[in-house]
């Protein structure tokens, strides 16, 4: 049997320890898997080792149970009111609770910053059993509407961050790099442009930093947010070809002229929403209004400066090559799991999104 694409590998640091469905069982029919518990044990053990050695540590704990195939361990299966996806979220919630309790039990919670967030909104196109909900926000993953880009964010540091504090700061996961360096007392590298901001003033003093957020799909800037205003220069959910096969990025939320299935340009007259009043991006502000003109004028200056300062990079996902996939990751030799890759034959990727 010839393998067309390699199965998903699981790593311990840089060494492969097995593959999905093989060494790490996932029952596709029932949704049962112990993977989250394995990840949890590894995380707790790592924290313990560092605490005993009195070494500072950085733990990036990234369970994947809410991605297809959605799974949960036996103790959580069928326990939520939201199906298999809810079960997976319930297990993640319980796991994070155990991590926080472990920090407290080791007596290092007063010297540890914990930051919880996600990389994107729920993939609502995956159907009721494999996806979550983005509440009032429009669409989901793989779009630049709020349902695709806005994520929960919780910072926890007893004694440093006052409990119950709510911040309206605009932030990006890129900010966690600069923030982590600042908290650790490390200067960022000065030989490159760093996009992220240090959020320490926000976390510790509840300050508000004035900054825009730019929404991209590939190399195309789709939208900009400044404060409560969001300005769309392009709109697109997913292609008609994909939509007509039953894949809907905005199920039950289609907004005429906004959730378009062709790439629509609005550069000359962008769509502007006030997210505080309209978090679902359903009612564009009238182009005739003074509010529209004021926001448009302000954002235009910000975008022009952004484009002037931007240093374009070479997109890493524009070329596809089956040969560079995870055929023979480090550690496959010990497992006898190395696969022979095909010959390299790169082609220009055609992404439907």
Please give the structural blueprint.
Blueprint: E1 9-12, E2 15-19, H1 35-52, H2 83-105, E3 114-117, H3 146-149, E4 153-156, H4 175-184, H5 200-205, E5 213-217, E6 220-226, E7 229-232, E8 234-235, H6 240-243, E9 264-265, E10 271-274, H7 290-309, E11 319-320, H8 332-335, E12 347-348
Helix pairs in contact: 1-2
Cofactor: Ca(2+)
Domain Sulfatase N-terminal: 23-186
Protein name: Sulfatase N-terminal domain-containing protein
Explain what the structure shows.
With 353 residues, the chain is an alpha+beta fold. 25% of the residues lie in helices and 13% in strands. It has eight helices and twelve strands. The chain has helices spanning 35-52, 83-105, 146-149, 175-184, 200-205, 240-243, 290-309, 332-335; strands at residues 9-12, 15-19, 114-117, 153-156, 213-217, 220-226, 229-232, 234-235, 264-265, 271-274, 319-320, 347-348. Strands 5-6-7-10 form a four-stranded antiparallel beta sheet, covered by helices on one side. A hairpin with a 2-residue loop joins β5 and β6 (220-226). α1 (35-52) packs parallel to α2. The two termini are 32 Å apart. GO terms for molecular function: arylsulfatase activity. This is Sulfatase N-terminal domain-containing protein. Residues 23-186 form the Sulfatase N-terminal domain. Belongs to the sulfatase family. Its cofactor is Ca(2+).
């Amino acid at each position: 049997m010839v393998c067309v694409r390699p199965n998903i590998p699981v790593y311990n640091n840089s060494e492969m320890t097995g593959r999905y469905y093989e060494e790490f069982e996932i029952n596709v029919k029932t949704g049962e898997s112990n993977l989250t518990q394995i990840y949890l044990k590894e995380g707790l053990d790592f924290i313990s080792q560092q605490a005993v050695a009195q070494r500072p540590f950085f733990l990036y704990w990234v369970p994947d149970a809410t991605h297809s195939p959605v799974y949960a361990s036996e103790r959580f299966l069928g326990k939520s009111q939201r199906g298999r996806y809810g079960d997976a979220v319930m297990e993640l919630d319980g796991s994070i609770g155990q991590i926080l309790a472990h920090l407290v039990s080791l007596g290092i919670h007063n010297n540890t910053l914990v930051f919880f967030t996600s990389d994107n909104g729920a993939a609502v196109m995956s159907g009721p059993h494999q996806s979550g909900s983005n509440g009032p926000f429009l669409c989901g993953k793989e779009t630049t509407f709020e349902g695709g880009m806005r994520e929960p964010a919780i910072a926890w540091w007893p004694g440093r961050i006052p409990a119950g504090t709510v911040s309206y700061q605009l932030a990006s996961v890129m900010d966690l790099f600069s923030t982590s360096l600042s908290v650790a007392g490390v200067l960022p590298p000065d030989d490159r442009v760093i996009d992220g901001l240090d959020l320490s003033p926000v976390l510790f003093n509840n300050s508000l930093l004035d900054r825009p957020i730019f929404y991209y799909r590939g190399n195309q800037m789709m939208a900009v947010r400044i404060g409560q205003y969001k300005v769309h220069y392009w709109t697109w959910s997913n292609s008609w070809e994909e939509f007509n096969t039953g894949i809907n990025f905005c199920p039950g939320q289609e907004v005429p002229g906004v959730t378009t299935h062709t790439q629509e340009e609005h550069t000359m007259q962008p769509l502007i929403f006030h997210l505080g009043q309209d978090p679902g991006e359903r009612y564009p502000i009238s182009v005739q209004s003074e509010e529209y003109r004021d926001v448009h004028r302000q954002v235009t200056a910000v975008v022009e400066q952004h484009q002037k300062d931007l240093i374009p990079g070479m997109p890493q996902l524009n070329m596809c090559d089956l040969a560079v996939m995870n055929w023979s990751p480090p550690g496959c030799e010990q497992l006898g799991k190395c696969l022979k890759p095909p010959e390299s034959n790169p082609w220009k990727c055609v992404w439907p999104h």
